[in-house]
Amino acid sequence: MTAAILLAVYVVVLAGMGPGVLRRVSWVERAPRLGIMAWRSLTAAVVGAVMAAGVAVVLPASPWGADLAHGLHACPVMLRDAYAIPPGMPAVIASVAAALLACAAVMARLIHGVGAELVRDRRERRRHLAVLRMVAHRDERLGVLVIDHDAAIAYCLPGRAGPIVLSTSALAALDDRRLAAVLAHERAHLRSHHHQFTAVARGLRRAFPFVALFATAEQEIDRLTELAADDAAVRVSDRLTVADALLTLALDHSTPTPAVAAAGRRTGQRVRRLLARTPPLRAIASLTIGVLARAAIAAPLAVAALPALLVIILD
């Protein structure tokens, strides 16, 4: 029971304090890829801790508890007592039933929310690609699809062999340097599979709309994927050119829903960040953040397994 209580406290602390901490620290914008990892780890840790708490409550009263004890070469009675709920049959039955219902509800909402979002996202991309095949022509030199449009549009359609799409107005407005920066930005989205990160974040928000953490995580992951793609563009161009390209596209911009675009979302903030020339994180700082992000996910498993480990040691 102690493990379940600790995991419940862990969930409350992470969900309550985690978003505020990540939104205040400066390294998230300096290293957006690490920021994406941190937000994904935070959401995964919360979901994992809820599930682990349910398992910790159900385990001693289920037939799997004895099987686990034999598998670990531990005393079944000691293992049951390590996870046990305080004495009282009504309390045991009520706690186990509540834990089972909670686990089932979390899994059902998780599968429905995230699964439905991934399916919907893929369906919209297929529809959009079908339209592009009818109205766009391929520019073999650039390796992009070109559509006739009065607005300066540049976006990529994620997925396997997803195309980059440019409008004729965008090609007219961008010189070679700015065009190279825009293409590098879109290729970074495709290469890093940013659409999967944002789709899962949307799915979690849909699955648990009453949890503020997931709504905040969706917004931040969406924002940070753009910053990460901007940084990728800077590596093949320079900050001024990337900022200039963003402003050029933002002056006249419209992007289809299932697409990921170079401009149109928080352009002013992104341009200011590019012009600020903030130094990158040191390697040791990046390594530390990466370890902590993974530790946040591993912690629920460690807490849930701790009573069993103690039984093995003491038995």
TrEMBL record:
Q: What is this protein called?
A: M56 family metallopeptidase
Q: Could you name the domain of life of the organism this protein comes from?
A: Bacteria
Q: Which residues form the Peptidase M56 domain?
A: 162-264
What Pfam families does its record include? Peptidase_M56 (PF05569)
Gene3D superfamilies in alphabetical order: Metalloproteases ('zincins'), catalytic domain
Instruction: Please name the source species.
Output: Nonomuraea montanisoli
- Taxon lineage: Bacteria, Bacillati, Actinomycetota, Actinomycetes, Streptosporangiales
Task: Give TM regions.
Answer: 6-25, 37-59, 91-119, 291-314
**InterPro entries, per the entry:** Beta-lactam_resp_regulator, Peptidase_M56
Keyword terms of this UniProt record = Membrane, Transmembrane, Transmembrane helix
